[in-house]
C-alpha cells in the first residue's frame, strides 16, 4: 500500500507514451516506535533549503514507510534532487541543515528519463542518525558518499558504496587505540561526537597558575587532527567542562567566578557568553545539544537552584534564563524535548521530572548518594534510565516521567563517579571503571544484562581521566578517550563497535 503520493499524474487522452516518473520506495531499519515521521523534499540538486513537499507517520513492522511518485515540473530529462528526512527526536518537518540534529537524512540526485519509470529505493539507516554529510552527499551505513546516482536500462537506480574516510565521521577503525593528543597533561578529556570524527576539550594548563588555556581539538578517522586547535582563556581557578557539539559547532563550559560558555567551530573561537545570573556555588553544571539548540543548566544566583538557558546555532547569544528549579545536581532532556530530568546531589540522589516548557514538577523518585548519571531515550518519553552509586553501582530503567520502574540491575563495585551511561541501539550501555580498568555493560530496556566487554585493562589509563560518547542515539558503536603514560603519554582514543 502506498502511504503517500507526492504528485498525481494527469493522463493525456490518446497518448501511448509511458509517463516520466521516479517511483521512490522509502524504508528504514529504525524501530517504528522510535520514528516520529518521515518527510520528503524535492528540488534542485544540492539545495538543503527546499521545503517539505509531503510527510507521513506511516511505518510498518517490515520497515516500509511508503512509496511516492515524483514527476518533473519542467523538462522530461531535468535533474532533480530528492531529500528524505526521518525524525528521531524532532518532527521531520523541522529537520534542518546543516546538522539535521535528531534526524536521519538521505539525499539522491538523478536525471529523469523521458517517458520512463525509474525505481529509486531509499533506506533511512539507523547508522546515519545525526550524520548529515554535506548538501551534495548522502549517508550510507554511517559513511558519506556522493548523492548522485545513475539508473540502468531497466530503470533501477542504486548508490555506489560510501567513501572510506569521508565526512560521515564513522569510518574510524574499531578496536585500534590511537594516540590523538601526544604529550597532553594528566587531566580528564571531554569527548564529543563531531560530523567529521570526534572532538576533545581539556584544561591544558593544569591546576592553578596564570595564562591557563582550555584547548578544543577534533580528529578524523585516522586519528589526525582535523583542524587548528582552538585555545580558550581560563582564569587561575577555572574548571573546564562540560563540552557539547551539534556535529559542526562546539560549546565549552568553563567556571571561575561565573559560568562562561565559549561557542564556535573547531579551529575558530567564537564568542564567550557569560551566563546571566549564574554562579558556580558548586562545580556542577551541564551543557548539551538537543532539539536544534544548545542548552545550559547550572547553579543559579539563588542558592541550590538551576538556571536554564538556550542558544541556537549560528547565534552566539544566550537567551535569558527562563526559570529555576530547586535541585543541585546533573540533568538530561528527553529526546522529544518535552520533559526535563534533573538529579539532586543532596542527602540522597533523587531524580525529578519537569515539563520542559513550564518547569512544573511531573514526578520524582529517591535513589542513593555519591553519584548519578542520567540518560533519556526514545520519543514518547520512555524509557529513561539512570545509573547511581552508593556502595555499589546500580542501573535502573523507568517508563516515563512518572518513574514507573521497568527494572533494576546491580552492576557492582566501581570507582567513585567513574561511570558513563549512553544509548546503545534500542537499549543502553553503562561504562564503569574500577582500579584502572573499564568495562562496558549492554543492558536492555527492562534492565536485563545482555553482555559485558572489557574496554581498557588495568594500567591502561589513570583513574577518572577518561570519557566516552555514543556515535548516535541508535548506534551500538561508541568512542572512549583516556589519558595514559603507555605506550606514550597523552590522550588516547579507541572506537568500539560491539
Question: Would you spell out the secondary-structure blueprint of this structure?
Answer:
Layout: E1 21-28, E2 38-43, E3 54-56, E4 64-70, E5 79-87, E6 103-111, E7 117-124, E8 137-140, E9 143-146, E10 150-151, E11 157-158, E12 178-182, E13 190-194, E14 197-203, E15 213-219, E16 230-233, E17 239-245, E18 250-255, E19 259-264, E20 272-274, E21 285-290, E22 293-299, E23 306-311, E24 324-325, E25 331-333, E26 339-345, E27 349-355, E28 361-368, E29 371-376, E30 384-389, E31 393-399, E32 404-412, E33 419-424, E34 427-434, E35 437-443, E36 449-456, E37 466-470, E38 478-484, E39 490-496
Parallel strand pairs: 1-7
Antiparallel strand pairs: 1-4, 2-3, 2-5, 5-6, 8-9, 10-11, 12-39, 13-14, 14-15, 15-16, 17-18, 18-19, 19-20, 21-22, 22-23, 23-24, 25-26, 26-27, 27-28, 29-30, 30-31, 31-32, 33-34, 34-35, 35-36, 37-38, 38-39
Question: What do you see in this structure?
Answer:
The strands form eleven sheets. The protein has a four-stranded antiparallel beta sheet with strand order 3-2-5-6, with no helix packed on it. Strand 8 and strand 9 form a beta hairpin. Residues 1-14, 163-170 and 278-283 have low confidence and may be disordered. The protein has strands at residues 21-28, 38-43, 54-56, 64-70, 79-87, 103-111, 117-124, 137-140, 143-146, 150-151, 157-158, 178-182, 190-194, 197-203, 213-219, 230-233, 239-245, 250-255, 259-264, 272-274, 285-290, 293-299, 306-311, 324-325, 331-333, 339-345, 349-355, 361-368, 371-376, 384-389, 393-399, 404-412, 419-424, 427-434, 437-443, 449-456, 466-470, 478-484, 490-496. It is mostly beta strands and 498 residues long. The chain is globular. The chain is built from no helices and 39 strands.
